[in-house]
Amino acid sequence: MLGQLHIKNIGIIDEINIDFENGLNILTGETGAGKSLIIDSINAITGSRVSKDIIRTDEDMAFVEAYFYDQNEDYVLTREIYQNGRNICKINGRLVTVSELKELGSNLIDIHGQHDNQSLLDEKTHIDLLDGFAGVELEKLKKEYANYFEKYKDVLSRVQKNYGDESERARKLDLLNYQINEIEVANLKLNEEEDLLNRRKILLNSEKISSSLNTSHDAINNNILEELSEVTRAMSSISDLNPRYQDVFKEINEAYYNLEDAVDNLADLAMDVEFDEDEQADIEQRLDLISNLKRKYGKSIEEILEFLEKSKQEKQFLENSEEIVEKLKKEQKDIVDKLNKIADSISQTRKEYAAKIEKKINSQMQDLEMKKAYLEFKFTKSDLFLPNGKDEVELLICTNVGDELKPLSKIASGGELSRVMLAIKSVLGEYDKVPTMIFDEIDTGISGQAGKAVADKLRIIANTHQVICVTHLASIAAAGNTNFYIDKQVKNNKTKTMIKKLNEEEVIKEIARVIAGNDITKSVLDHAKELRS
Fold first, then answer.
1. Strands 61-68 and 2-10
2. Neighbouring C-beta atoms of residue 112, cutoff 10 Å
3. How many alpha carbons lie under 13 Å from residue 25 in its C-beta half-sphere?
4. Cα–Cα distance, 493 to 240 (Å, whole number)
5. What is the dihedral of CA 347, 348, 353, 356, to 10 degrees?
6. Which residue, among 299, 287, 300, 307, has the nearest Cα to 184 in the 3D structure?
7. How far is CA 179 from each of CA 166, 301, 303, 314, rounded to the nearest angstrom?
8. Which helix (H) or strand (E) holds 443?
9. Cβ atoms < 10 Å from Cβ of 321
10. Is pTM, for the whole model, over 0.70?
11. Closest residue by Cα to residue 132 from 366, 425, 439
12. Which candidate, 431, 430, 409, places its Cα nearest to that of 420?
């Protein structure tokens, strides 16, 4: 149960404390007084997403604290919301994440507001609604199904990865054979491109090279060697007179013989230099081939050869993958058989609960002045495996005798939706263990006898649950075990929300205000007392 709620700096709320009681707690007040902010604060403390815009103007942070109690354990939940987007959440003084706060909050409070009415119109939510009624029995089957569903997705991925599709495998093999053949026929060699580029450079500069080699040969052979020979003879005649002369003679003599070798080499090199137009064409053709292969398979010959090796490995794998795929497909079939079996059990369980729940919800709707209306779950079996089985479930409604069942979005008015949701919540309360149920403006679109029926239903729910209800309807306000009045006041040019727990006399006056506004007469007060009795 929600015992105490402390709110600070939320919207126009400066700071308030609320002590809730068991049974039916009613919140009434003028429009804009802050009733919805109290529900927003409860949403915040139970882990819902909140914007920093909720923080009171000119304040740095907002704060909500709630005390929950039951027979087993008490909880104090706190949440601080800052302008910079930071949130600090605690459970019994221990720092927790918003997700942890939400997980605990979902076990403490069930909040129903206008959003829930809208979610009823979305058929995707209907299967979750039904599964909520089925509870533990279905949850066990769904966990088993989820386990096999993950295995199914995994084996399906592996089959596709291993080219389980025969046409895809054949296509890939054809491509690999073409690529392997194209590279192998080229007979590439490491460093080949560099060698070709160097040879092309020589061919393109053959005339210049030949001229330079011949000039160098003639200069050394005709001039330098002859003069160096004279120097050698001169130094030889004095080399035995001084060790230093001897050293110089050796150096000059060695240089003479080196130059003789250089002259021979220059002659050989000059003979090798010859522009070959056919060789030039062959080199250009080879370089074009390499360039084309680089565009397809890698930035260098080394990368192309690596691609070739990987392609050969993949080809070998594909040629052997048929056996692998067959094993995977057998595994897939076993999983599919198991999934179908579990999905059938899930569907059967859902249908059994649907039949039970339909009767209970339809009975509740009769109590809520929807005498001719009834709901029915429509089941459609999907051809695909869905995350929670193979069922597609939609909640249909008929509101008049002789009409056919139609989607809620095609039939229900705002008031009817509110009563349908209350009927569902009334039945759900028998199945769940959430101690506190909150209804934010459950009276939308209803009045008169329907409003009284809603009040009676809330009173019944409050026998087994703590109920907190925001209302603008006198008949519902009159049903409260504990009534609170929310008002706003202006002090020092700032608007503040005030809340007061009403005594019995004040409750009568508030019911009268809800009926007639500020024009409260004796007859209005008598009517309020009559509603209260």
1. antiparallel
2. 20
3. 25
4. 121
5. 130
6. 307
7. 20, 15, 14, 12
8. none
9. 19
10. no
11. 425
12. 409
3-state secondary structure of 190: coil
Burial class, 392, CB count within 10 angstroms (exposed 0-12 / middle 13-18 / buried 19+): middle
HEC secondary structure over 113-167: CHHHHHHHCCHHHHHHHHHHHHCHHHHHHHHHHHHHHHHHHHHHHHHHHCCCCHH
Dmax (CA) for the chain in angstroms is 153
- DSSP element (H, E) containing 67: strand 61-68
Tokens of 147: 């386990």
CA nearest neighbour of 438 among 453, 422, 423 = 422
DSSP state of 78: E
Please give the DSSP secondary-structure letter assigned to residue 412. Answer: -
Does 432 or 327 have the greater pLDDT score? 327
Three-state DSSP class for residue 406: strand
Domain assignments of the chain as residue spans, ordered by start: 1-112+434-502
Length of the chain: 533
Q: What number of other Cβ atoms are within 10 A of residue 101's Cβ?
A: 22
Query: Residue 277 has which token pair?
Result: 């137009």
User: CB–CB of 327/159 below 8 Å?
Assistant: no
Q: Residue 121 — φ and ψ, nearest 5°?
A: -80, -10
**94-96 and 87-91 beta bridge pairing:** antiparallel
Task: Please tell me the distance from the alpha carbon of residue 514 to that of residue 521, in angstroms, as a whole number.
Answer: 13
* Residues 508-512: contacts with CB under 8 Å, at least 24 apart: 508/532, 510/28, 510/477, 510/483, 510/485, 511/474, 511/477, 511/478
pLDDT in tens, 132-177: 888 888 999 999 999 999 999 998 887 777 655 677 778 888 999 9
| Location of structure tokens 């595994």 | 331
Report CA 314 to chain centroid distance, whole Å: 34
Rounded Cα distance, 142 and 500, in Å: 47
When the candidates are 3.40.50.150, 3.40.50.300, 2.60.120.10, 3.30.365.10, the CATH number that belongs to 1-112+434-502 is 3.40.50.300
**pLDDT tens by residue, 256-271:** 888 888 888 887 787 7
Q: Could you give the CA distance from residue 129 to residue 142 in angstroms, rounded to a whole number?
A: 15
Please provide the average confidence, as pLDDT, over all residues in the chain.
Answer: 87
Alpha carbons 18 and 29: distance in angstroms, whole number = 15
Looking up tokens 């400066």, which residue turns up? 14
Structure tokens at 193: 């491109």
Distances (CA, A) of 515 to 288, 369, 415, 448, 528: 94, 21, 19, 11, 8
